[in-house]
Amino acid sequence: MSTAPTPPPRTARCPCGSGDTFGDCCGPVLSQERRAGTAQALMRSRYTAFATGDLEHLLRSWHPRTRPDRADLAASLDENVRWLRLEIHEASTGGPFDDAGTVEFTAISRGPQGRQVQRERSRFLREAGAWLYVDGEVGTGAI
Ligand SMILES: [Zn+2]
Hints:
CATH class: Alpha Beta
CATH topology: Nuclear Transport Factor 2, Chain: A
Number of helices: 4
Strand content: 25-35%
Number of strands: 4
Bound molecules: zinc ion
Largest sheet: 4 strands, antiparallel
Strand order of the largest sheet: 1-2-3-4
Order of helices and strands: HHHHEEEE
Helix content: 10-25%
């Protein structure tokens, strides 16, 4: 399987749905030009990484304690899944002056099994200035 990401053009709307262009939103985070300043920004960049198949960003932004094996993660990225929408419900703490945060969101995708709605409350930690995804409580179902 190819792990090379196919990023959208910088002037395209960012896949995370922020309303900004990719070049002003998740693009520079995925290309490591800058770090995500908040837990929510990292969450958005990880959604965009799932949407664009950016395995390296997913691994890089995962806490070493909970990071999956590279091959396992690569196998879980399904090219047949299209990521349709991200909705952020709540981001508590996880700001520029915090070292921990949670983000509750719903990610909507469409795959061979139809439409999937995943709601998750994710936990993030900031270490050495970099926000990292730790884990999350997942719930799936229809809206
Ligand atoms: Zn974005």
